[in-house]
Write a structure and sequence with these properties.
With about 800 residues, the chain is of the alpha/beta class. Helix content is about 35%, strand content about 20%. It has a 7-stranded parallel sheet with strand order 14-15-13-16-17-12-18, with helices on both faces. It has a 6-stranded parallel sheet with strand order 19-29-28-20-27-26, sandwiched between helices. Helix 1 packs across helix 2. The radius of gyration is 31 Å and the shape is globular.
């Protein structure tokens, strides 16, 4: 028997059901069901009704067994476009994730089961059938109704086809929303009832005495339509006056849904800047390459303050002229408010914002505006790469080197890789921008896989800030035990006298990094994580920065009873205390995860800094990017070694990027900038290259080391992490997994296998949140990646060899940011 069938992913997270299930399509539904729609199907032996998503439709099925049929269609149009559906399928294979996890990235925010289709009456035009009249009559007294309820209440044959026809004729309108938000926030709108009536004819109906009514009509004719609130405010009148016009059948009052606005502040216009010669060359050539189809992947390597954002803005403007949509990605939206200010300031209501700081409702409203084509631009964090545009032209990834572009949740995707795949599927362009590109990205540019453009000068034509490297070992030899070198202390003093602003950077929060007993060497550690706890002076407690657990700071040593408890290391809280002590007249503020917890606190502090109400701003990496303060002339890097000394092959790269980025905050106005970098390792190549603002020199040093030790970009890393509460059981399971992997890597000999596989061994962070962690690291060349993934899928995901995984969880990460 030949029949159309649909491959469906059902809403069931069991490993055994992570595959497409084939269902027959009833002939009456053939023209209605499309890929990307949600359906209801009978599932399992009990044939219970379950929701699913159609991922593929086949014209015929020639199997010799009877298929179950799809029961109902929940959507009148696909929730997911064909291109985004293809992207999610690619992610499932590339990142070894489940179907549902991959689909969740391209579905509307939240639980897809909660999303409902709503129907509303738009226009009462001439109808052609009794069924159409029944539907319109049903909707007349309702502002909006659930599609599922309408179907149940009316129970009309062929209702899906009738509804589709009515929507095509613009008699009804369908929209999606979250089922828990049926009572939407609406406001009353006023518009002219009869468009053929002139203003003069309206005046004759009103008469000469009703002055306020005349004013309202003049206002409405000018504005076409307006909210009732705006009308009352503009004309200084009351509801009664407006209702009088409604009785005269001159106007009509309708209800419109109020969209939640995620931007809670006024944003000033951001005028278009004329590009300088260097910017113009880059912009013009990039546009030509896109138009001619020569290239669609670009890297813009520009020094801090070189005007990369203005190029982004003008490229987006070009996309709008061509009728195309743009996605602008930033590392973390709450940390880069100036990006939002510039795009909203330039393009106003054409911009949607997507990020994790929005409420569930706000996020859904923004997603729906994009889906319905009401905006042309999205500014957002990592997940905005999946914005449901229908005519995508450009994806910009600003500060492309940032680690936040790698997802820590399944699927553990790399935003740059996903963006690259998406533009391939949709015929769009990708622009990566950074003052400190990642080693992997720059390597691709050097091989010609990405077209490289460079901006070597600041827009204001000033030199990059001078960086003074201070050897803190010498400071110690000279008797200076302060956290401030003599040079930094003097420079802060001079800055305060000349009424200039200072930024002090330390990428570690808290007061002291660990608490230890001087008698026996005991270190206060988190019981659940086996890592040292950080002392926070303001609450007089020690805190674990991995699980959040806090305890009262000990007065006596729990091990030996000694009172010689001391606090070692420094964090931003300690820097703030010492700054206030040495510079009591200064206005000091701190920006880190401990002080920026309240909503709006980040914007408030930045506003105060912009207005000159803060003299010294202390912070972690959240102050290292996206900030442009004209009066900041001094940046002090308290300890450049904190990142450098981490046991991770990317540490030198991270250190160089952080130093360069934070140094770039100085001297962005008319005054020259100066940076003082304090370190105990001044001869490290990362520090030396930072001092010289020499990315190319740093890249040459770093790429040699990567090649020698076979790290990315020369190989791929795959991390397999098992974790659970029972250390012995986790150890046994991962050791069996390791043995099976070695036995199944048949394309290499034993010596080569030992070279590419490290572990199993306890992870560097052996215990987090009371979960013991064991790890295997694989180094795989590109040509063997697909073979390796198939092997991992068979052994680890499908568990063909029945490894005991009871109470054990697994994390597989392709090219992780860190191997800690």
């Amino acid at each position: 028997m030949l029949t159309s069938v649909a491959e469906i992913i059902v809403d069931n997270r069991a490993v055994q059901t992570d595959r497409p299930f084939t269902y027959a399509i009833n002939p009456k539904m053939e023209n209605l069901i499309k890929e990307g729609m949600r359906v209801i199907v009978p599932f399992g032996r009990g044939n219970r009704n379950i929701k699913g998503i159609v991922i593929n439709i086949l014209d015929e099925f020639s199997g010799d067994y009877k298929l179950k049929e799809i029961i109902d269609v929940l959507d009148d149009k696909p929730l997911i476009s064909k291109e985004l559906l293809s992207l999610s399928k690619w992610m499932k294979e590339y990142y070894l994730s489940s179907y549902l996890d991959s689909l969740q990235t391209v579905l509307p925010p939240g639980d897809f089961k909660e999303i409902e289709t709503f129907v509303s009456l738009e226009n009462e035009l001439e109808l052609e059938s009794e069924e159409e009249e029944i539907i319109v009559e049903y909707l007349k007294d309702k502002k909006m109704e659930l599609l599922s309820k309408l179907k149940t209440d009316l129970n009309l044959t062929g209702i899906n086809q009738i509804l589709e026809k009515l929507e095509n004729q613009k008699i009804i309108k369908t929209t999606i929303d979250i089922s828990t938000r049926i009572s939407k926030k609406t406001e009353r709108w006023v518009e002219i009832l009869n468009r053929e009536l002139t203003l003069e004819e309206s005046r004759e109906r009103i008469g000469t005495r009703a002055n306020k009514q005349l004013e309202i009509m003049e206002y409405i004719f000018k504005e076409k339509s307006s909210s009732l609130e705006q009308v009352l405010k503009a004309v200084s009148t009351t509801d009664a006056t407006v209702k009088a016009l409604e009785k005269k059948e001159l106007i009509k009052i309708t209800y419109r849904e109020v969209q939640r606005d995620p931007i809670k502040r006024e944003i000033a216009d951001y005028k278009k800047h004329e590009l300088n010669k260097e910017q113009k060359l880059v912009f013009t050539d990039m546009v030509e390459k896109v138009n001619e189809g020569e290239s669609n992947r670009f890297l813009l390597h520009g020094v801090t303050g070189s005007g990369k954002t203005e190029i982004y803005l003008q490229l987006v403007e070009k996309m709008i002229e061509d009728g195309k949509d743009s996605i602008i990605l930033v590392p973390e939206i709450s940390l880069t408010p100036q990006t939002i200010d510039r795009f909203v300031g330039r393009f106003q209501d054409d911009v949607a914002v997507l990020h994790s700081g929005l409420s569930h409702g706000e996020r859904f409203d923004q997603w729906r505006m994009i889906k319905e084509g009401k905006v042309k631009i999205v500014v957002g964090a990592r997940s905005a790469v999946f914005a449901p545009f229908n005519n995508l032209g450009l994806i910009v990834i600003d500060e492309e080197h940032e680690t936040t572009y790698k997802s820590s949740n399944n699927p553990k995707y790399d935003t740059i890789e996903v963006a690259s795949k998406r533009i391939e599927l949709e015929g769009a362009s990708l622009l990566l921008g950074s003052a400190t590109p990642s080693i992997e990205t720059y390597y691709k540019a050097s091989k010609g896989e990405i077209l490289l453009y460079e901006l070597n000068h600041r827009v204001n034509k000033d030199a990059l800030p001078n960086i003074d490297v201070i050897d803190m070992r010498e400071e110690l030899n000279l008797g200076n035990r302060s956290i401030f070198s003599r040079n930094l202390y003097k420079s802060i003093e001079e800055n305060l006298k000349s009424e200039k602003q200072t930024i002090l950077f330390l990428n570690r929060r808290g007061f002291s990094t660990f608490v230890s007993c001087r008698s026996c060497g005991y270190v206060v550690k988190c019981d659940d994580c086996e890592v040292s706890m950080t002392y926070h002076h303001n609450i007089n407690r020690v805190k674990c920065h991995y699980c959040g657990k806090t305890e009262i700071s000990p007065v006596k040593c729990p091990e030996c009873g000694s009172e010689y408890i001391r606090y070692f290391g420094i964090g931003t809280e300690r820097v703030e205390e010492m700054t206030r002590k040495y510079f009591p007249e200064a206005r000091v503020a701190r920006m880190d995860a401990d002080t920026m917890g309240k909503k709006g606190s980040y914007e408030k502090t930045l506003g105060m800094m912009k207005e000159g109400k803060i003299d010294i701003l202390i912070g972690t990496q959240m102050i290292s990017k996206g900030l442009d303060f004209k009066n900041v002339t001094l940046v002090g890097i308290i300890a450049a070694d904190t990142t450098l000394n981490l046991p991770d092959f990317r540490s030198p790269e991270r250190a160089f990027q952080l130093v360069t980025q934070v140094a770039g905050r100085a001297g962005r106005g008319e005054y020259k900038g100066n940076v003082i970098l304090q370190t105990y390792d001044p001869d490290h190549y990362s520090i030396k290259c930072s001092k010289e603002h020499d990315f190319n020199k740093f890249y040459k040093e770093e790429i040699k080391i990567r090649e020698e030790f076979e790290y990315p970009p020369y190989t791929n890393l795959i991390s397999i992490l098992l974790y659970g509460r029972n250390n012995i059981r986790v150890s046994e399971s991962i050791n069996k997994m390791g043995r099976l992997l070695k036995e199944n890597i048949h394309w290499l000999d034993l010596e080569e296998i030992n070279n590419i596989m490290s572990g199993p061994y306890p992870a560097p962070l052996e215990k987090i949140r009371n979960q013991f962690r064991w790890q295997i690291i694989l180094k795989i060349e590109d040509k063997y990646m697909n073979l390796m993934k198939e092997t991992i899928k068979k052994i680890c995901l499908e568990n063909e060899y029945n490894i005991n995984m009871k109470d054990i969880k697994m994390s597989i990460d392709i090219n992780p940011n860190s191997i800690l």
